[in-house]
Amino acid sequence: xxxxxKWFKKDKTDQTETSGETRGTxxxxxxxxxxxxxxxxxxxxxxRKDWTRVPEQRPGxxxxxRHILLRSPELGLQQFAQSLREREAEVRGGIHEGRIxxxxxxxxxxxxFVPNPLPNREAEQxxxxxxxxxNSEAEIEGYAAHMRVTAINVEDGTEGHKFxxxxxxxxxGNMPNALAVYSAPxxxxxSAYLASADMxxxxxxxxxxxxxxxxxxxxxxxxxxxxxxQDFGGDELELLNTQRSAAETFELMFSVAxxxxxxxxxxxxxxxxxxxxxQSLTLNRSAGAALEGMTMKIEGF
Length: 301
Description:
Low-confidence stretches: 1-32
Strand order of the largest sheet: 1-14-15-16-12-11-10
Protein name: DUF4261 domain-containing protein
Number of strands: 16
Mean pLDDT: 88
Distance between the termini: 59 Å
Structural class: alpha+beta
Number of domains: 2
Organism: Saccharibacillus kuerlensis
InterPro entries: DUF4261
Largest sheet: 7 strands, mixed
Region (Disordered): 1-46
Domain DUF4261: 225-299
Number of helices: 8
Shape: globular
C-alpha cells in the first residue's frame, strides 16, 4: 500500500439592500431526488471499499474542470496527500496507476497528467481577456504540459467549487513548476490562486477563482459579462453600455456575482439591488448580448 493510499484511507452587518422577489438556494447541498440519493449512497458504499473506483456522472449533477499549466513535466506529489488533508480532513483516495482520485461526500475529483500544452494555444489566446493579470500570456509562454483536474457529481455549486479549489491548491502548492490555473476564459497565476484559496481556511469564498468578469468597449460605452454563474444555478450577468470606468464596472459585476453566490440567491428578473446609499439598480432577464442564451442584465449603472 502506497503512502498516499494509507494517508487518505484514514477516517478522520450586511449593507446591501435588496427588494423584489428572490429565491434562495442556500449554500448547503441541495437534496437529490430519492432515486438519485439511493444511487449515490450505493456508490458511496462501493467507494469506501475501493477508492480507486471512479463513479459514473449522476444525472442532474455538474462537472467542473480546471487545468494546471506546467512549465516542465515534473510532478511534485510527495506532499500532496498531507497538503490536501490539511485543507479537507474528510477526503478519501490516493494515486492509482498515475491518476489522482479523491472523494469527498458524494463528489469525486480526478487529476490526470497530460504531457502536452492545451491544443491550439487555447490558454494563450484567452489571456487577452484577463485584465487582472495583464502579462499572463508572456508568463505562460512555452509551458510544456498540464494537469486536467475534474470534479464530478457536483450537486451544489458552492460545495463543488470549494472541494475542487482545495484539491487544486494542494497540487500547485507543491509544484514550483506550476505556472497558472486555467478555466476558459479565466487564467490565474499560481501565487494568486494559492492566496485566494487560503480564504477558505477563514470561512470565506474565493469567488474570484470561480467567476470570470470580462470587459469590452463599444461606441456607446463600456460593457461587461460573467462566466461561471451557471455553475451555481443562475444566469450569467451582463452590463451594457455604461459610462462608468472599467474599474467601477468590474467592481459592480463582481459584487453582484458574489452577493448571489454567498447568499445562495437565484435572481429571477425584476429585482432591485443597491450596494451604496442612493444607488438603485434593476435586474432584467433577456436574450444575451455578448453571450448565448438568456442573461441577467444589470441596468441603471
